[in-house]
Amino acid sequence: MADTTPTTPRAKPTFQPTTPATSRVTNTNVVHPSPHYTTTRRHSLYGVEDRVVIDPGSLIWKVGFSGEGRPRDVFYAREKCATPLWNLSRANDAAERAEDDRLLDIWLQTCLRSVFHDSLLTDPKARKVILVEHPLQPLYIKDMIARILFENQVPSVSFASSHLLSLFAVGRITGLVLDCGYLESVALPIFAARPLYPQLRTTPLAGARLNLHLKALLLMFGTYLPPPTSLSSAVNIPAANRSTRIPDEVLNDAVIEEIKTRCCFVGPTLRDDLEVRGGTPADDYGSEMDILPSETTQSESDFSHAGLESTVSSQQESSEFSVISNPRSVSTYGHRQDDYLQALAAMYRRHSSCTDLKMSVIPPSNQQTGTGRGTLIIPGWIRERAAEVLFEGGDVDETSLAETILDVLLKVPVDLRKTLASSILVTGGTAALPGFIPRLHSELLRATAPPSTPNDGQPEKRLSPRFDKYASLRPLVPYFAILNNPSPPPPTSSRAGANAGKAPAFIP
User: Fold this and answer.
1) Which of 126, 304, 475, 499 could form a disulfide with 481 if both were Cys (CB 3.0 to 4.6 A apart)?
2) 3-class SS of residue 349
3) For 114-138, b where at least 16 C-beta lie within 10 A, e where not — what string?
4) Is the separation of the CB atoms in 105 and 148 below 8 Å?
5) How far is residue 96 from each of residues 120, 318, 499, measured CA to CA in Å?
6) At what angle do helices 139-151 and 94-114 cross, to 10 degrees?
7) Quick check: 192 and 376 in contact, CB under 8 A?
8) DSSP class of residue 69?
9) In whole angstroms, what is the distance from residue 406 CA to residue 421 CA?
10) Got the DSSP string for 384-402?
């Protein structure tokens, strides 16, 4: 007779789930439908589903899905107009502020509708959302975006720091992130994935300031060729006779943004003895501020006429550019601003070998209709040296980008300085200019260099020592390293060699 003694039930054998060994897509340039990976299960920071990632900037929005290597779409917030959605200041009047908020709400609804129905082609009810937030983004803007998303029945909204996500994207959890955007540049230290917000530093030297400086230089030194009235006049009339100053109506925000992104780059560092902020530039370069007078139209801006009352003489190197000589009554500030720009032009021309570029633009509406489009002649030295405004320091409220990074290093604990100095990450649209990151590294070295003592031929005269703000950071010079530097200099330490240019996007 068989033994029928009952036995204790045993637990079921444990099941070990494994990821199918399916090769990923080899061609990364092709945009695939979500999910991006071909495996059935993927470990992610937010689970296995792909979330919608929205990076709402004041000027440009970037949207896509989590887990993908690049955004699905990048677009201007105001469609094709390069005008920011919000500024750093708000109206003081309550009625005006309410009207601005109402217009902002309309634009945000338009942008978010375009994100889901035009860029991503997904149902907002089926996707959770990750909002990339700026550390200093106003609370009312974040509240407005979250309210609009929940009104469209989004399952959940998560806010993530833009600096922290940028550091995660290069595989680091500790570093000093400089975000050079449109309205301002912000440097934030991050240690062990924890942003150190009390040590945050910011400067208004960013894309908006670069646009204003570029427009001022083009209005004063650029050349505009209006479209000829007929095809025969285009052949018979020389271009020098048709050239005028650039009308203010031509240089709108979209044209300035296109010139900045397509034509401009960052040149190497100038000599240390050529500083224009420390003194009066008109006295040092007065012999090189003369330009050739010529005729002009009545559509020029008032700013382009500032400081041109005096008699000017011709100069051989600037004979192809025409400048207005109509005398107008201007203020003392206009004279100072004009002299400052003239001094910059005299200095930048001597240290630039870049060629001029021609760009077709739409003629202003008040100009006589001709055949075709007008032509902008952009001087080469403006293309190369317009971004110098981002690296000019010395102001308490408007520190340069290098000084902003060094101010952060002064505020962090001493034992973190070497680690952060060797893990600097530069992000933002303005930082995408060619040559920006190598120039920033050279500016860091120049700002921490010992101050030079003036030698006036009197060795017996004792001078008071100059204030050396960054003397305590001088031992960090061998360790300075930018993670996404496309052309890092020869390393001066093992830590700098292990980090400089080692971000995934720049690994050869």
Assistant:
1) 499
2) helix
3) bbbeebbebebeebbbbbbbbbebe
4) yes
5) 35, 47, 50
6) 50
7) no
8) S
9) 9
10) HHGGGGGG----SSS--HH
> For the purposes of burial, counting CB atoms within 10 Å of the CB of 1, is it exposed (0-12), middle (13-18) or buried (19 or more)?
exposed
Task: Enumerate the β-bridge partners of residue 224.
Answer: 244, 376
| Calculated CA dihedral for residues 395, 398, 401, 404, nearest 10 degrees | 80
Which tokens is 461 given?
């005269």
Residue 241, token pair as written in the block: 């006779």
Task: Kindly report, residue by residue over 208-257, the tens digit of the pLDDT.
Answer: 999 999 999 999 888 888 887 665 555 556 566 677 888 888 888 888 98
pLDDT at 492 over 90: no
3-class DSSP state for residue 224? strand
SS3 (DSSP) at 131: strand
- Give pairs for 311-318: CB < 8 Å, separation 24+: 314/290, 315/288, 315/290, 315/291, 317/349, 318/291, 318/292
User: Which amino acid appears at position 45 of this protein?
Assistant: L
Q: What is the pLDDT of residue 421?
A: 94
Q: Give the angle subtended at the CA of 58 by the CAs of 175 and 436, to the nearest 5°.
A: 50
Q: Could you give the CA distance from residue 86 to residue 434 in angstroms, rounded to a whole number?
A: 27
